[in-house]
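Please, structure for the following, as tokens.
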Amino acid sequence: MLVQIALGSGLIITNVMLAGLMAWALESLLASGQRWLLAPPHRPKLAAVLTMTVLWSLAVMTIGVWIWAVVLRLLDLFTTLEASLYFSLVAFTTLGFGDILLPIGWRLLGGMAAANGLISIGLLTAMLVEVLRHVRLSQLAARAGDS
């Protein structure tokens, strides 16, 4: 049980750190394009930022699922990488079909993968809202400064 909790905690911490690093990269990218973002027209650029941020979020989630899948496969808990990936995706998204299960001695990892997915979805949703809010407020301030 302690091994599962330690391993699951390590995987969650790894995924949160990955999301933090990718958020830092996204912030750097947006900062480098600030002049372009603040120049009119604003709405198409806001749509571009939305699209980019959603794709970034999808990439973070995909990498997180792959991290779990590779670890589960390396532990030999599934016979194929595809089964490991499927389980990780179903657990991470908290869908929980239950058609593929971890062995009884490792089932705590399933709940921890689901918790990791919930944390990631919440974090990524907050980041999406913050990015859009920041860009839009900066655009409005730039427009007010031009007037």
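The helical segments are 2-32, 34-38, 42-74, 81-92, 108-146. Residues 108-146 form the longest helix (39 residues).
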